[in-house]
Amino acid sequence: MAKVLMKGNEAIAEASIRAGGLYYFGYPITPQNEVAEYLSRRMPEVGGTFLQVESEVAVSNMLYGAAGAGVRCWTTSSSPGISLMMEALSYIAAAELPCVIVNIMRTGPGLGGILPSQGDYRQAVKGGGHGDYRSIVYAPASLQEAVELMPLAFDRADRYRTPVLVLGDGMIGQMMEPVEFREHEFPPLPPKDWATDGCKGRKPNVVNSLYLDPVKEEELNRKLVAKYEEIARKEMKSDEYGTDKPYRVLLVAYGTTARICRTAIARLAEEGIGVALFRPITLFPFPAARLKELSRPAEFLLSVEMSTGQMVEDIELAVRCRKPVHFYGRQGGLVPTPEEVVDEVKRLLAGAKGGAA
Amino acid sequence: MQAEVVFAGFGGQGVMLAGKLLAETGMVLGKEVVWLPSYGPEMRGGTANCTVIVGDEPIASPIVRNPRDVAVMNRPSLDKFCPLMRPVGVAVVNKSLITVDPDRDDITVVNVPANQIAIEAGTGRAANMVMLGAYVGATDIVPFEALVEQVKHQFVKKAKLIPVNVKCLEEGYRLGQKKRA
């Protein structure tokens, strides 16, 4: 199929439809409104359901219900809207139901602004809702990658019966790039024999997250942990750039920030300074093993984020604090430029030399 | 090769569409392209801009602090973006609304009375097409014929708008080419 030039929000919408995500509930918030605009037109064409409901709380509980009934359902929102969904997300994780939630992050905390940010890293990666649960988190860096990750997100949600988050910043939502929708093939999924889709001729299925018996609750906790361990073993994804050449510095960045780092690396290479990039594609599970390996030749690591450094702790943990992990970031909707990253790398290298002398 | 151009002007002048048409033309030709809008609580009369990157290699950073080229349709856009340009870039300046010249001698300036040309062609609303044509004329970033095809495709459902838009593109292109010669 030929490439088409699409806005990120529209590309995510189309990719989800093609992945069978035919039940969408949403509530407007910038910078992801084009998803709903697109789906409100497109869903009727494909026999899907587009529903704009009264709030994000309603959205998330409709996801809970639809996921319980065994259909592929999903939503999109942006930071404050995602916060409102966290209670239901915890219930969905507890009830082991599949759904996909896309967060086109804006600035925060609070109502913040509508410009790009990566300030919801911790919320997405460490839980967000209450209780012992995790979600698989994908972070696309380009629109083509976003359209590849959506079908994977739906598949993994079904396969592991877990909520899956896709974390993009405002730029991923708003920019246009050529995309190509390819067919994706996945191994067969187990039947959804747990779904509450009518119980004629069988015992009723029950969707529930209330456990008043501590022994039963602990059983669930242990079952979930085993699931997250399996996910951590099998689902780590990452990308790297410039690691095939000698490098003194390893940048770590995800999403569009990683692309800014790539330009910075090219500029630094022109000056003879070897720098490489590690880009986590899954933020949970964090691809720690590969990062640790790649950190070995580096003098230090530099995390570049549109936040105040939320990923740094995961990088430090991955390298077991054996290498210094520095941070450079912009906040408030300001985006780090390649020039800023170049300057920061040089500043740190000069400082490192000074320290050795 | 990678070129970045910022199309900037008032909201409503069509800078987003001009940028999109350039990006689409590049895509059809098999080039790597990115279109990144400034977005915010913007409305008709406010400022708007988009950055278009066209290249032969996959595009790394979609954020460009120093674009090679600009196409500015109003004075605030000229004041904001011309100082950021890299040397030897092309600045297409809408002389219908901008009375000053860019304060630089290391760039190529293409002066285009875009609104006037568009009004004479039939509608002032196509001033963005004059700018786009002039930019392509001055840079040959994409073949002009491919751009015309893309504009025809854009207006396929409003076919009566095609002649005036193509006319504006041609007029702009002619001025851009003249600067090149």
Automatic annotation (TrEMBL), chain A:
One of its GO terms (molecular function) is oxidoreductase activity. Gene3D superfamilies: 3.40.50.920, 3.40.50.970. Pfam families: PFOR_II, POR_N. Residues 15-185 form the Pyruvate flavodoxin/ferredoxin oxidoreductase pyrimidine binding domain. Residues 249-341 form the Pyruvate:ferredoxin oxidoreductase core domain. Keywords: Oxidoreductase. SUPFAM superfamilies: Thiamin diphosphate-binding fold (THDP-binding), TK C-terminal domain-like. Coiled coil: none annotated. It comes from the Bacteria. This is 3-methyl-2-oxobutanoate dehydrogenase subunit VorB.
Automatic annotation (TrEMBL), chain B:
The keyword Ribonucleoprotein does not apply. Keywords: Oxidoreductase. Residues 11-173 form the Pyruvate/ketoisovalerate oxidoreductase catalytic domain. Gene3D superfamilies: Pyruvate-ferredoxin oxidoreductase, PFOR, domain III. InterPro entries: 2-oxoglutarate_synth_KorC, PorC_KorC, Pyrv/ketoisovalerate_OxRed_cat, Pyrv_flavodox_OxRed_cen. One of its GO terms (molecular function) is oxidoreductase activity, acting on the aldehyde or oxo group of donors, iron-sulfur protein as acceptor. Pfam families: POR. PANTHER family: 2-OXOGLUTARATE SYNTHASE SUBUNIT KORC. This is 2-oxoacid:ferredoxin oxidoreductase subunit gamma. It comes from candidate division WOR-3 bacterium.
